[in-house]
Specification:
The structure is a homodimer of 121-residue chains. Chain A is mainly alpha-helical and 121 residues long. Helices cover 62% and strands 0% of the residues of chain A.
Chain lengths: 121, 121
């Protein structure tokens, strides 16, 4: 029955999954795609090496972030999640412009009113 | 004099840099750190494989993005550039809140005025 309990990483590599497998807690057997993504972008060896640098209690978060970035890179091979960062920067610029307009409108409606709202960084 | 003209990738691997080296245009000899970063995170083989998927005219952009993500991951091993995405999301939320306050203030100052400003997505 070993086959059914192998984690997604060991299943992918068609190897036995030991009880101390470093991938097992983060790549469950029921979600093989998760491992396929990070393996394709970072390579299993690099993932293993990076693991060593993660504090144990943050490994789950770190793997989530790696999976997210890998998924973005597969969806957008050229720009990866940098395209999301660019889009968010544009959104902030838009919001800042709208806010400046609103502040100008407030100042026009009541020059005495204190415009306490500050623009985001 | 081959040594001085080797690209940063070939220099790192202590190998000859051929005239058709795929890394040479993107990893110049005078910036070795750039290759060290992407190699550490993605591995040279994976970078090579990803190259094949990039349209030739976008390779420069793709390498820029990979270097950016790798640098973020080295600076913040757990969250990488996902921490920037989270921060930008918080900034947008803050801007939306400020904008909503400004719109409420406008409506209060002049209930007849049309608040044409829309909140960002």
């Amino acid at each position: 029955m070993t086959t059914t309990t192998r984690c997604a990483a060991c299943k992918y590599f068609r190897r036995r999954c030991s009880s101390d497998c470093i991938f097992a807690p983060y790549f469950p057997a029921n979600n093989p795609q998760r491992f396929v993504c990070v393996h394709r972008i970072y390579g299993a060896n690099n993932i293993g090496k990076m693991f060593e640098g993660f504090p144990e209690q943050l490994r789950g978060n770190a793997i989530e972030c790696l999976c997210y970035e890998a998924k973005c890179r597969i969806q957008d091979p050229v720009y990866g999640c940098v395209s999301i960062i660019s889009w968010l920067h544009r959104e902030i610029h838009l919001a800042q412009t709208q806010l400046a307009k609103a502040q100008a409108q407030i100042a026009l409606l009541d020059p005495g009113v204190e415009v306490a709202i500050t623009t985001p960084r």
